[in-house]
Structure to design on (228 residues):
């Protein structure tokens, strides 16, 4: 099993550009989520999904879109990048049923917006 | 709203000694879970230990154990026989029983002195 994979590992964008961060898991997990990590702060939830076709907003959803067409993939789209979106982005997945279930994290994407 | 507070931005310990990292949380829920995650310089987020709020017995995982004080809303992590590989950021996190969203503390940087 590859676990949770994220691409790219690093990305530099100019203000106003759009891009998609890719996330895939091969563990047949129903629950997937996106977090951002900023210096001096804990991770903050952007969007999450409890299954294919179902998504919902987290704590900081503005400027980001998601979709979940398959169980395996959960891409995060930045519509018009802003310097405030400079951050490290993590994708996570777990089995549903209980929030006690371990969440597995991808290696992260470091995004810089100039 | 639930919050998680880690009051120690940085801690250091001599190799082979014991260190305790502090975490407090605020919630009005009765059904919830608490977690400690480790993030080494590789950036990979790794689950260290977890606790179910309804269990009075403190969780243990090899050299890692917690001191869960439900009334005080405290959830500290004890690392015994510290090793160089324990050097990392440690994050405390909370989730409600029926909600998969993790709420994170700001983290504690643990330094191991050889």
């Amino acid at each position: 099993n590859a676990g949770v994979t994220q691409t790219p590992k690093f990305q530099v964008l100019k203000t106003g550009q759009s891009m998609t961060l890719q996330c895939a898991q091969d563990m047949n997990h129903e629950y997937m989520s996106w977090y951002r990590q900023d210096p001096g702060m804990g991770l903050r939830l952007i969007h999450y999904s409890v299954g294919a076709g179902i998504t919902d907003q987290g704590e900081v959803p503005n400027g980001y879109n998601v979709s979940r067409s398959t169980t395996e993939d959960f891409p995060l789209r930045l519509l018009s990048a802003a310097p405030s979106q400079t951050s490290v982005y993590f994708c996570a997945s777990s089995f549903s049923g209980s929030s006690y279930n371990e969440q597995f994290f991808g290696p992260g994407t470091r995004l810089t917006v100039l | 709203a639930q919050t998680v507070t880690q009051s120690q931005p940085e801690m250091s310990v001599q190799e082979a000694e014991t260190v305790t990292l502090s975490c407090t949380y605020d919630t009005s829920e009765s059904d919830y879970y608490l977690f400690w995650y480790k993030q080494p310089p590789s950036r990979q987020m790794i689950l260290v230990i977890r606790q179910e709020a309804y269990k009075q017995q403190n969780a243990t995982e090899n050299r890692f154990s917690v001191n869960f004080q439900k009334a005080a809303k405290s959830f500290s992590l004890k690392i015994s026989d510290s090793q160089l590989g324990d050097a990392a950021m440690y994050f405390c996190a909370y989730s409600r029983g029926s909600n998969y969203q993790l709420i994170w503390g700001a983290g504690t940087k643990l330094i191991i002195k050889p």
Q: What stands out?
A: The CA atoms of residues 69 and 112 of chain A lie 28 Å apart.
